[in-house]
Amino acid sequence: MADVLYRRKRRHATDSMLDAALRYAELGWPVARGAAPGEDRACNCDRMGCPDPAAHPVTMAWGVEASTDPATLRRWWTATPDANVILPTGRVFDVFDVPREAGVMALARMGRSGIPAGPVAAVDSSRYLFFVATRSPVDEDEWWSCHLDCVPEDVEEMPGLRWHCRDSFVLGAPSLMPSGNRVTWIRTPLDAGEPVPLPDPIAVLGILADASAEFSG
Description:
The chain is α+β, with helices and mostly antiparallel strands. Helices cover 34% and strands 19% of the residues.
């Protein structure tokens, strides 16, 4: 009986992951497969001491492979049912990634000022992800370098704030972390069955930058 319940729970978790991938595809969001927590270690990838356990794609070709094709997604998650969901950025949306405390502060300020937050996700109870409209390559010189995506600690004005844009990615809900926590939506990308508009990144950035600076101080 216990084995039957275990299989049912495992199947439900798998269906939820696949269903999420299919819903993202319906939004026009490309999806790729991600690593997952291992049975006896933090990540099921081949790297010993993985530096980013269960939070990276399963293949270096993820950027090319990312797809919105339902048949492709079903094939992937049938073959690797525990795979986390990877959402490439810089295509449909960019993502601002901030410490949880700064994210909570920013959401409160957006609510008071009437600035729409758009979709927001929580990662392992430590980071908040703010999904915003992507910037075109033409605009990026007036924006900032993807260097911020690698070493946000070096940007004194915005400590702890990461920008995921072209050639980057984030984990999508309900991806599972080694801690046992899942990526969850604080504000979902759907409202009454309709896609939530992605907000202007400049307006969101201003509030997140201030919140990040105040939280670090």
